[in-house]
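quick q for whoever's on today - can somebody do inverse folding on this one?? i tried earlier but teh output was garbage lol. tokens:
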């Protein structure tokens, strides 16, 4: 077993390429669709460098595992803990309590480098969107630290002659396993999986222990081939790709080829002063760019930032990164720092104090909103993604049964169903699932993996009640669903099936959507940043597309609440807040909607029952 040694500036340049690709992708995924493979470049570099250190120690006859872990902790932890403390303080001010609680859960996982598993487990429909989660990027650091726990043990225990074949076999097994999971539609699980990422480290490790055989001639050829693979990866791979799996081999092999060609023309360019400077900052840039970006997006409530916001992002990211590098990261990395363990302990204690203070402060900064304004129902009492009892609302002794189904826009109608059901003497069975219209053939690939099983289960549960229901009501966030051709086909089949059963069907329009989350608006206003909410414009066209399809079926009707006075001045009606965010009603709104819609729905239902009765008589 041989290992490469010596300081290499071209590796700093490669780090610069990796972090710049990641930042560009995170700013706007359309600018560089595969920029996220910068993480894979980092993993290969880490495997190469760390295995090289351990291999050289093994060649000398002794692997100092304690020294290895100490050096990794000094390299990673101080800047990381500083980031977590500062971000927690800022988010305590910025986030509404529900979002801060979710943030704090991610923080606890990040503190012990388990955030990859935390984010893989998340399926909270109402949590901040993924691009607003300040610690989402820590998943890769978690994987790196988890790998560091395993690698020294492998090097120490493995006989020298078995190291290379073991690395090849392990990498092959884990790549095949990742590809198998991707084929079985487990993309999110694979993306955050340590096992799926191990081959990326091992490619670097294999290069490190095969140094004498790979650092020879043809450097320019290898470097240009590696460059071509990296260009292919950042341009042609995208979030829609089946990744990591086999496809991850492209950026990983490309990185390995560049690492194996230190004297090439490409690597000389990578070793230039600007690239080396950026590469030196790469860890701090990676740490800070994402929380700054997520915080701006949360505050501005947009994904694509304006030019002024982009300038602010760049200035904040660079300033925080340079401060972190020169005053936190670099000082703690110096071997000559006296009493470093005591300084690190004191530093960590201060960070812990800031984090705990922020936790206490968040709910106290702004007077809390009444609970009925922040939710549409108590989650444990409704059949949303789960079956709780009989899922019945309205009049338990009602003379007829109505089936209300859909996504969270149907789930928000549980109190609505109570009001309407009692008014029209009906039992209303409400069965819903996050992001899912639980009908046969629904496009489950568009929703998160964690939402798919509840979607399937609710779809199966509905089959028990579908045929016996006196009528069906359907509600959804149509602007999310209509872009999917697969959904539109399943929706058409659903319409045709209800018509074939001569079953009255009322499709409820998506409620008007606002430009601002009302809970955030409340917090920002209280903090002195004036905010107002206006109607957003995409929901209306989606409603029209659904209405056009419904109109083709005589047993069906489209009911649009936008014509009601209740929605004339959203998010307020009769002096009270009726929305819980920017597109869901709260408990107050759901009740109010039921009161103003009951008579209209009763009239529409009577008309449809008359139509379906005539259809039954006319049927051969």
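ok took a stab at it. sequence:
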């Amino acid at each position: 077993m041989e290992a490469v040694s010596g300081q290499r500036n071209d590796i700093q340049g490669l780090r610069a390429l990796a972090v710049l690709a990641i930042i560009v992708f995170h700013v706007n995924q359309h600018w560089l669709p595969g920029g996220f493979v910068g993480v894979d470049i980092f993993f290969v570099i880490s495997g190469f460098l760390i295995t090289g250190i351990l291999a050289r120690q093994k060649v000398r006859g002794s692997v100092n595992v304690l020294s290895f872990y100490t050096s990794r902790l000094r390299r990673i932890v101080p800047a990381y803990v500083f980031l977590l403390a500062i971000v927690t303080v800022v988010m305590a001010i910025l986030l509404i309590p529900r979002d801060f609680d979710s943030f704090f859960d991610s923080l606890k996982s990040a503190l012990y480098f388990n955030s990859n598993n935390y984010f893989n487990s998340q399926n909270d429909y109402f949590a901040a969107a993924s691009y607003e989660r300040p610690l989402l990027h820590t998943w890769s650091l978690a994987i790196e630290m988890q790998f560091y726990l395993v690698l020294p043990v492998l090097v120490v225990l493995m006989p020298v002659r078995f190291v290379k074949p073991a690395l090849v076999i392990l990498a092959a097994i884990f790549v095949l396993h990742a590809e198998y999971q991707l084929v079985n539609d487990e993309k999110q699980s694979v993306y955050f999986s340590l096992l799926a990422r191990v081959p990326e480290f091992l490619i670097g490790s294999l290069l490190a222990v095969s140094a004498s055989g790979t650092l020879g001639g043809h450097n320019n050829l290898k470097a240009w081939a590696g460059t071509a693979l990296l260009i292919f990866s950042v341009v042609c791979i995208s979030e829609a790709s089946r990744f990591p799996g086999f496809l991850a081999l492209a950026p990983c092999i490309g990185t390995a080829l560049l690492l194996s060609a230190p004297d090439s023309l490409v690597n000389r360019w990578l070793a230039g002063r600007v690239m080396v400077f950026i590469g030196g900052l790469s860890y701090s840039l990676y740490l800070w760019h994402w929380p700054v970006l997520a915080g701006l997006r949360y505050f501005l409530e947009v994904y694509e930032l304006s030019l002024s916001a982009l300038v602010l992002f760049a200035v904040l990211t660079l300033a925080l990164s340079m401060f972190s590098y020169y005053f936190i990261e670099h000082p703690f990395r110096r071997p000559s720092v006296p009493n470093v363990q005591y300084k690190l302990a004191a530093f960590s204690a201060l960070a812990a104090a800031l984090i705990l203070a922020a936790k206490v402060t968040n709910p106290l900064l702004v007077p809390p909103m009444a609970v009925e304004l922040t939710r549409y129902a108590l989650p444990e009492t409704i059949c949303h993604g789960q079956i709780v009892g009989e899922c019945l609302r309205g009049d338990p002794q009602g003379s007829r049964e109505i089936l209300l189904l859909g996504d969270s826009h149907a789930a928000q109608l549980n109190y609505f169903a109570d009001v309407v059901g009692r008014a029209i003497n009906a039992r209303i069975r409400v069965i819903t699932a996050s992001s899912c219209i639980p009908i046969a053939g629904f496009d489950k690939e568009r929703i998160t993996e964690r939402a798919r099983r509840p979607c399937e289960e609710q779809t199966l549960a509905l089959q028990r009640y579908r045929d016996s229901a006196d009528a069906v009501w359907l509600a959804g966030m149509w602007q999310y669903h209509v872009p999917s051709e697969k959904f539109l086909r399943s929706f058409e089949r659903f319409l045709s099936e209800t018509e074939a059963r001569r079953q009255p069907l009322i499709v409820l329009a998506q409620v008007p959507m606002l430009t601002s989350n009302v809970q955030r608006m409340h917090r920002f206003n209280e903090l002195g940043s004036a905010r107002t909410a206006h109607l957003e414009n995409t929901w209306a066209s989606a409603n029209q597309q659904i209405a056009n399809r419904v109109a083709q079926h005589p047993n069906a009707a489209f009911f649009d609440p936008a014509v009601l006075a209740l929605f004339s001045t959203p998010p307020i009606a009769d002096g009270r807040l009726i929305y819980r965010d920017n597109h869901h009603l709260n408990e107050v709104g759901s009740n109010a909607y039921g009161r103003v819609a009951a008579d209209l729905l009763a009239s529409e239902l009577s008309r449809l029952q008359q139509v379906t009765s005539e259809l039954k008589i006319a049927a051969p």
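fwiw The chain has two domains: 9-365, 372-618. also The radius of gyration is 28 Å. so keep that in mind when u check it
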